[in-house]
Design goal:
- It is a single chain.
- By secondary structure, the protein is an alpha/beta fold.
- The protein has a single domain, classed as Alpha/Beta hydrolase fold, catalytic domain (Rossmann fold).
- 41% of the residues lie in helices and 19% in strands.
- The protein has ten helices and eight strands.
- Strand 5, helix 2 and strand 6 form a beta-alpha-beta unit.
- The mean pLDDT is 97.
């Protein structure tokens, strides 16, 4: 792992491969390791894998922060590494961060990958649920989300144990901070039609957390977007179907 202090936060990251710059932003409540199965299929790319603040090897940040703050961390990391333009791929919460990067610095986005994510904000009941979960995490630790989320992330039961372990290793403070940030995220629906760069959307048809309809709605608002729906795949296409997911991202963002 490498570490840099950017935007006032110590951010850990991995970097592998050579070619067109490609940033993979992990989902909640995970870290960059969730992309491991995808990496062998991303030849021809200079892949940057950051841990978002509060996750993996990155620093825990006191107080409240937003999805926009997390996006600024990634932008500052690109600055530090002198990466002027990159394809940005985000999974679930990472998709919210990727959308914010596209909002803040569209000229630096070579393409946008949206995997198992959505443009809509939380409905009031969902927002309340996130804060209730954060309170439980404060009392009981990350095991709260590990137990509840791990079985829902993948359509393949073989992946549940490894996902449970990965979630269990995340700092409770980071999990709580991300829950609040997601609860308060803004609606990105109107942003979608402004995109001038390629967009690749990937969604599993067996996703138990975000319905595929959210991706279909995004596709309808982005004329140039590709949408890949994968049968019998859950919320983690990069685990359940790494070859198909990589193919969709490479063809949609890197030209093959």
């Amino acid at each position: 792992m490498h570490e840099l202090t950017v935007n006032g936060v110590q951010i850990a990251f991995e970097r592998t491969g050579a070619g067109a710059p490609l940033v993979l932003i992990h989902g909640f409540p995970l870290d960059h390791n969730m992309w491991d199965a995808l990496l062998p299929h991303l030849e021809g790319a200079d892949v940057l894998l950051p841990d978002l603040r509060g996750f993996g090897g990155s620093a825990i940040v006191d107080g409240t922060y937003t999805i926009a703050d997390m996006a600024q961390d990634v932008i500052a990391l690109l600055d530090a590494l002198k990466i002027e333009k990159a394809a940005i791929v985000g999974h679930s919460m990472g998709g919210y961060v990727a959308l914010e990067i596209a909002r803040k610095v569209p000229g630096r986005v070579a393409g946008l990958g949206l995997v198992s994510t959505q443009a809509l904000p939380d409905a009031p009941d969902r927002k309340a649920g996130r804060y209730a979960t954060a309170e439980k995490v404060g009392d009981q630790g990350s095991v709260v989300v590990a137990d509840s989320m791990a079985p829902k992330l993948s359509a393949d039961p073989q992946h549940v144990s490894a996902l449970h372990k990965l979630i269990l290793g995340q700092p409770p403070a980071g999990v709580m901070g991300a829950l609040a940030a997601m609860a308060e995220r803004v609606d990105s629906t109107e942003l979608l039609s402004t995109f001038k760069f390629p967009v690749a959307i990937v969604h599993g048809l067996a996703d138990a957390l975000i319905p595929v309809e959210r991706s279909r709605e995004m596709k309808a608002l982005i004329p140039q977007a590709s949408l890949t729906e994968i049968q019998d795949v859950g919320h983690m296409p990069m685990l359940d179907a790494p070859f198909e997911t990589a193919k969709a991202l490479k063809e949609g963002l890197l030209g093959g």
